[in-house]
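User: Second chain of the day. Same drill as before.
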Amino acid sequence: MNRRNLLALCIAAVTFTPSGSARADMTAPPAQALYQRFAVPAKTTWGTVAIDLRAQTWRVGRIDGPAATEAELRAALDGAASLEIGAHCAGWVEVSTVYPCGFAVRDFGVRAGGERFTAIATDLQPADAGAVRATSVPRPDLQAAGLIAPVPDAKRFVAVRVPQRFLQDLGAAYAGKLRFEFRAITNPLVPSEFDRSSAVVVLRDNHRHAQASVPAMLVAPGAR
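Assistant: Same format as last time:
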């Protein structure tokens, strides 16, 4: 079995839907998403994240950009088109076998008692197999079995995208907290590497949504 499928065995109950990317709308204002940072929980355990929905806690255009004003955040919350939750991680590649990294979100919901969102995102851009084959070196303890030691893939940003229908009450939540659970996903055979300080929430309104979204993203939505 291709070991890329080992991770899929753990998440086979979820139907995957590729997110795609939007084309730029030249009539819209300049795309400028809002960002807020958080920390990835330790190891692969679930951790509760509480995102502050007050203006000064969000950044405009990039994670180290200027603080958002109340007017900017209210406009983004009122017209929320998508919200992306993710961080940087790196999996491993062994010739044509991929050990991807990823993240999971569950129990996301704006309104108490409302519909909840659960999803998984995994890296879809593994390193070129030919380049990996050229740099991989067979390990003596594995060579008899014809295996090659895996090499680390590039570290990329991987995110879950929350659909618009789960964001309809964001405007009324200003100055409150947006809560969800988050965890890292790794392959048990070859553990992934995670930049746990890089986790971020990216909020786009109906104009900003035209901006090309985060690459390397696969979204598996489900409601409960």
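Residues 1-31, 208-224 have pLDDT under 50 and may be disordered.

User: Great, on to the next one.
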